[in-house]
Write a structure and sequence with these properties.
Number of helices: 19
Radius of gyration: 23 Å
Oligomer: single chain
Helix content: 25-40%
Length: 491
């Protein structure tokens, strides 16, 4: 059974199908796994727009314990599955008007500060997207000063079809530096205590979902149920439900396992738990791999970055996943666990074919290891939209040179160019030991054209992808030689 707080009320979900989305649950459309009736929340303020995590109309906020703090983060309810709520607090737009203290405000004709900001700056237009925008503003308002994103980043996952972004930005700016002083902020210690009580109850199961509290429990469950789907951030798995209309009979959620949420650093490498979110790794990547951190700002929206995980992006094995090419260029490796056995393999050996990996039945990605080596990493992402869009081509290039301008080591990894994220090994062979000059560049570009035969699809033709990949390598050469490259367009 799934336990979470809906505002300050404990909710125990026993019979709702595990692949039910949070949006369907809130709007009263949840299916049950038996004939028992499901609790009907009928919180219809949360809207259904795209059902793919793009438009933000379904944005809700989840409160999660992080150490001794309660952190509020936005989430796309349309692709979030119910087990992801276990041990968290869920807030919807109704909660800004539905709590006891909010009721007292309403009797006085007062709105929550984020609602008032939208009124003051004329930010509410047709109203369909407004509840999601309110919740994004709420999360921004409650961010700690050290973690607070800029306004455009916080609102980047909320589309306004009335096209009136200026008043929304003005409303957000008016809140950006304001200290929260609402019932949620004042009650945060009580809320945190309630969530910790749920966490102390350990693993839970029911309605086709298992939520283990440790890796040992996870490993044993996967041995016994190798057909179970692993739920981490769910930002891609949820699309199987909403876009492909698939039924998922068995789910195992890994978001309550502490060891998969940790980042360990020593003198030689970073060791990142597979369930660490994109947003959680940004600060340490900014320190060691700033180009990687900058690319993460373009990986989905804030809602996606709050939930999506590094391990999930690898395990999904999509040829257009944004992080695998960068990790390939950094010589990352994976710890794979099967029962009590753990093996480490280079990421370059993990991807076998389209959506096929080295994982055996019942095995899972436990950790990602990134060597801390000197590097000259550059990451280039081409997409139809600059932000919140899938890559057309992603190139991660990392060359080492000596004092004479000779390339001593080469890593060139590409996404969107093959059935898997792939290193351009023929190109790397030509680059290694060669001088950093136009002749070497010409030969390396010819190797890319020889080695890759990308497909044509709705994002780009095969010819475009080949030309783009070669041009990105040329851009790298120019930047490495100190030339200032001005970008005219992004796709």
């Amino acid at each position: 059974m799934i336990r979470f707080l809906l505002n300050d009320r404990l909710v125990v979900v026993e019979d709702t199908a595990s692949d039910t989305t949070v949006l369907d649950y809130l709007r009263g459309n949840a299916e049950t796994s038996s004939s028992k009736p499901v609790a009907d929340e009928k919180r219809t303020g949360t809207k259904e727009g795209c059902c793919s995590g793009d438009c933000g109309a379904c944005t809700v906020v989840v409160g999660e314990p992080e150490g001794d703090q309660l952190k509020y983060k936005t989430m796309n309810a349309c692709i979030a599955l119910m087990p992801s709520l276990h041990g968290k607090q869920l807030l919807t737009v109704e909660d800004l008007a539905g709590s006891h203290e909010a009721d007292q405000r309403n009797k006085k004709g007062e709105l929550h500060p984020v609602q008032q900001a939208l009124v003051d700056h004329h930010g509410s237009q047709c109203g369909f997207c407004t509840p999601g925008i309110v919740m994004s503003l709420f999360a921004l308002h409650h961010e700690s000063a050290e973690d607070k994103p800029d306004v455009l980043e916080a609102l980047g996952g909320n589309l306004c079809r009335c096209t009136g972004y200026r008043p929304l930005v003005d409303a957000a700016n008016s809140l950006a530096n304001a200290q929260p002083d609402d019932e949620f902020f004042r009650n945060r210690e009580e809320t945190l205590s309630k969530l910790q009580t749920i966490e102390q109850q350990g693993s839970v199961s029911g309605s086709g979902a298992f939520i283990p509290a440790s890796e040992d429990e996870l490993a044993q469950y996967l041995l016994d149920n190798p057909d179970a789907r692993i739920l981490a951030g769910g930002t891609d798995l949820g699309l199987d439900v909403t876009q492909q209309l698939k039924k998922i009979e068995k789910l195992v959620s890994v978001k309550n396992i502490p060891s998969l949420q940790t980042i360990h650093e020593d003198s030689d490498e970073l060791v990142i738990g597979s369930a660490v979110t994109y947003r959680s790794i940004k600060s340490i990547f900014t320190k060691y791999y700033p180009e990687f951190a900058h690319m993460l700002d373009r990986l989905g929206s804030q809602q996606i970055r709050n939930q999506g995980t590094l391990g999930g992006n690898i395990g999904n094995a999509s040829p257009i996943g944004d992080t695998p090419p960068v990790l390939l260029a950094l010589d990352a490796s994976l710890d794979l666990r099967h029962g009590d056995n753990i093996r480490n393999i280079p990421l370059n050996q993990f991807f076998l074919d389209y959506k096929k990996t080295e994982l055996t039945s019942g095995e899972y990605i436990a950790q990602i290891r990134i060597p801390k080596k000197p590097h000259q990493l550059k990451v280039y992402k081409l997409s139809k939209r600059y932000g919140d869009d899938i890559s057309t081509v992603l190139a991660a290039i990392n060359l080492e040179t000596n004092g004479d301008g000779q390339i001593t080591r080469a890593r060139v990894a590409l996404g969107g160019m093959a059935a898997i994220p792939k290193r351009a090994e023929l190109c790397e062979q030509i680059l290694t030991g060669s001088p950093l000059n136009n002749e070497t560049l010409s030969q390396a570009k010819a190797a890319i054209r020889q080695e890759f035969k990308p497909m044509s699809d709705v994002r780009a033709s095969s010819e475009y992808r080949l030309e783009a990949a070669c041009n990105l390598l040329e851009r790298y050469f120019m930047e490495l030689s100190g030339q200032n490259v001005r970008i005219i367009c992004h796709a």
